Amino acid sequence: MTYPLGFPADKPLVTVTHPTLISWVLEMHHGEDARFNEHFINGALMPALDAIERHWREDWRTAQAKKDKNGGKGFLVIVGKRAQNKFFSNGLDWDNLVKDPTFATNFFPLVFNPFLRRLLTFPIPTVAAVNGHCFAAAMIFALCCDYRVMTDGSSRNTWMCMNEVHFGAGWPLAIAAVVRAKVPNALVQRKIALEGHRFTPKEALDVGLVDHIVQGDTETVIAKAVEVGKSVSQMATMGAWGVIKKTLYQDVMDYSSRDVIQHNPLSEDAAAKSRL
């Protein structure tokens, strides 16, 4: 396999590099702020994850055949566009997605939720290198990674936030399940979900939303993410990393498989009107 790899091949929105024998770096450059839509997820992110897993599994099988206990190491770093230090991702491409009348019933169960499950149970350690703002669906994306390293925001203001409560959007079951799984503290859940609090990097570190904050530019954040990934890369050698996550996050797997109805303030008001 020859790197770098671009997905899709004709107009890449994602670039994958393989800097060392055990590391992969996935850079998102869908515009300046990497907003999620069906094309970005199914045309770029999902095939990129497939390519990385395929390569790692080839290495892992070779190590198993040779009975090499040190073979099959691996980790993945995911970062926002490297040429800027403003956005990791700005969440869903909301303005365009809601123009589709089938958005509520199709996008989450058929596109976004399978992507969350894929990332959440990825077979090697994943580290989100949060090099800028991390809003809404991007925060869920980062939480689905095993570890998070964030810029400390010293060069520009940087926030992590679930802001749906501020613009009148409900939460799908899958998003709520990810927050419950990754943020067990009910008071922090309240700040995230019901207050739409904008966590500074220091606040995000203090409440456990991120594992490290780093002063410096995107490359410094990536360097720390690589350090974190390397420290746990040996956990992939027995092939159980992703298997264990499937059971550890079983509630997320279950809820994301039955996300059909997207509740919103208008549907809630109509239901209340009929019963009150």
UniProtKB/TrEMBL annotation:
Superkingdom field: Eukaryota
GO biological process, one term: fatty acid beta-oxidation
UniProt xrefs under CDD domains: crotonase-like (cd06558)
Protein name, UniProt field: ClpP/crotonase
Family: Belongs to the enoyl-CoA hydratase/isomerase family.
Listed InterPro entries: ClpP/crotonase-like_dom_sf, Enoyl-CoA_hyd/isom_CS, Enoyl-CoA_hydra/iso
Organism classification: Eukaryota, Fungi, Dikarya, Basidiomycota, Agaricomycotina
GO cellular component: peroxisome
Xref: Pfam families: ECH_1
GO molecular function: delta(3)-delta(2)-enoyl-CoA isomerase activity
